[in-house]
Write a structure and sequence with these properties.
Elements (H helix, E strand, L loop, with lengths): L1 H8 L2 E2 L8 E2 L17 E6 L5 E5 L5 E5 L2 E5 L10 E6 L5 E5 L4 E4 L9 E4 L12 E4 L5 E7 L2 E6 L4
Antiparallel strand pairs: 1-2, 3-4, 4-5, 5-6, 7-8, 8-9, 9-10, 11-12, 12-13
Length: 160
């Protein structure tokens, strides 16, 4: 939370692994940013084009930040419901989205004006629709994790 507070205030931060400061900008008034009273940013990912994706809590959706504005996608555009727990960009440039109520979604072209969300759920091998994390192994296979009695379980997702 400390880092996010610095971002909102536009202060200078000193990253732990850097000998020089970086400048952070106040994004609170940026066009398209949803109000942060009932939703919070939970996950972040930069795509190959340099756009920053932000996943929000409480069905707040998924926002893509392009220079000077945010565009928010939600269930009306095909995003699965729930909090966006994790975002991951795979080796081919696809964006993967882990949600609390809709399983996992994949975006093949994160730069598209309106991205197409491809859903994965229990019918694709997930043990439930709550996913907490998503990652890729060295062979390019995607795996997602979910808590199950305080132990992480995982499923390998189809690639097509």
């Amino acid at each position: 939370m400390f880092g996010f507070q610095q971002l909102i205030r536009g202060e200078t931060a000193w990253p732990a692994m850097s000998a020089r400061p970086i400048s952070l900008r106040d994004m609170a008034g940026t066009e398209g940013l949803p109000p942060l009273k009932e939703i919070l940013p939970i996950s972040f990912q930069e795509d190959a084009a340099g756009n920053v994706w932000v996943g929000f809590s409480n069905n707040g959706g998924l926002a893509r930040y392009t220079p000077d504005r945010f565009m928010v996608f939600n269930t009306d555009q095909g995003l699965p419901p729930g909090t966006i727990n994790d975002l991951y960009l795979d080796h081919t440039g696809r964006l993967w989205v882990a949600t609390t109520r809709g399983g996992v979604a994949r975006v093949d072209d994160p730069t598209a004006a309106v991205p197409k969300f491809i859903h994965y759920s229990t019918s694709h091998g997930l043990s439930g629709d709550y996913t907490s994390a998503i990652t890729e192994d060295v062979q390019g296979r995607m795996a997602c994790a979910k808590p199950l009695n305080n132990v992480a379980s995982e499923a390998t997702l189809p690639q097509n």
